[in-house]
Amino acid sequence: MDRIRIQGGRALNGTIPISGAKNATLPLMIASLLTDETLILDNVPRLADVALLQHILGNHGVDIMVSGKRAGDNEHTGQSMHLSASNIVDTTAPYHLVSKMRASFWVIGPLLARMGEAKVSMPGGCAIGTRPIDFHLDALKALGTEIDIEAGYVLAKAPRGLQGARINFPRVSVGATHTALMAASLANGESVIENAAREPEVSDVAECLQKMGAKIDGIGTSTLRIQGVKHLHAARHAVLPDRIETGTYAMAVAMTGGDVTLAGARAELLQDALDVLQKAGVTVQTTNEGVRIARNGAGLAPVEVTTAPFPGFPTDLQAQLMALMSRASGTSKITETIFENRFMHVSELARLGARISLDGDTALIEGVEKLKGAPVMATDLRASVSLVIAGLAAEGETMVHRVYHLDRGFERLEEKLAACGAAIERVAG
Ligand code: UD1
Asked: In angstroms, rounded to a whole number, what is the distance separating the alpha carbons of residues 17 and 245?
């Protein structure tokens, strides 16, 4: 298994191009199942999760073509992907594929809406809490689906098609909103989704569905109103920039010091996190190119943060903020409200010298003068990258093991950081 070796203590300076968002790309690719015409996605990042989903969709019969670079594209331009589900040959998503990536469970909505049936393995993915699927299933039931669970599979049937319905989620769920939205787009009549996720990736998918002919009102709000249509058609859509990648590199720069432009980033997608960085004493500036992050010399002030659904502070940046605050002058408090058990990075950060104590869903981080390099183990996607960030600021060598998690969600991480002066390299095997 590959490792990442970091010699810490170097400031980051330069430009980091921000890739298309993983969490929009995955549901957008899945949306291709809703139509027999071709969906073209631009700005698709090169990630292990994207490759895995290509494989899963291929199993259902989706033809996928990734076009090469065109004249004028720079090397950082994302891929263009053509997805054509003209003929769905299999409505089963098997365990050995779905168990590798939780989001692949989301094929259930479009398969059901288009084919009237789906058999999808219960999901796996990052080991952060139990991550149930009850909201997905309740939404599909409300739309008229018969659901059975058998031998680890969800068997969903709607032989007479889906019927529009009112769905009110008990708490905000990104995935369940995707499922309900995609299914309702092809249902008979009107659906209303209340307490819908407002995450920018949900809006990106909704906008793509509109281009495909879906009738959706209320995009960006917590009430989505959908008039079902009989068919969706071909469309072309560019994936929005990755706000989690943006926030991650912003915290890396805040941690090491330096001055970096995050090219293509959109500040409004992560305003709350950028506000937190500013409170901590980091310079954040919106420019024509993207977002500029700088910290020169000054220490970091401690912060108090509680994770929340969008537009609140994202749980996917919680581990990175914790790494950053391990160097603040004072004690920070971070409360995690989205996922239980999302503190697996704490014990690894402690190996680098961070002082963090846990009390239920709250972490108290007592800033230390310096971190010291050590071997650490990546446990999930966002936790892994928090270890990389900490390693960049730690004295001496940090070796991050099990980096396959990073490859799931960060495109060319070492390359992007090295281009800004980090001493970071991948060690194969
Ligand atoms: C998505 C993101 C993930 C992010 C998370 C929260 C993708 C590919 N992944 O994950 O990076 O951390 O949103 O912003 O977009 N829940 C239930 N029942 C359900 C579904 C969810 O109880 O049926 C709970 C979860 O356990 C969790 C909360 O709802 O406590 C939010 O989870 P959800 O928004 O669904 O996360 P994902 O869509 O899996």
From this structure: 10
Beta carbons within 10 angstroms of residue 176's beta carbon? 28
Position in ligand 1 atom list of the atom nearest CA 173: 34
Residues with Cβ within 8 Å of residue 345, at least 6 apart in sequence: 319, 322, 323, 379, 382, 383, 386, 387
pLDDT value at residue 75:
56
Question: 153-157 and 146-150: which strand pairing?
Answer: antiparallel
Binding-site residues, ligand 1, Cβ < 6 A: 23, 26, 102-103, 129, 131-136, 171, 173-176, 201, 315-316, 338-339
Which of residues 299 and 85 earns the better pLDDT score?
85
Specify the pLDDT at position 128.
43
Residue of 202, 310, 338 to test ligand 1 pocket, by largest number of atoms within 8 Å of CB? 338
pLDDT at site 70 = 63
176: Cβ–Cβ under 8 A, 6 or more apart, which residues?
Answer: 135, 136, 139, 169, 197
Atom from ligand 1 closest to the CA of residue 102? 39
pLDDT at residue 336 is higher than 50: yes
Tell me what pLDDT residue 20 has.
97
pTM value is 0.96
Alpha-carbon gap, residue 361 to 365, rounded angstroms:
13
d(CA 268, CA 386): 23
**Active-site residue set:** 126
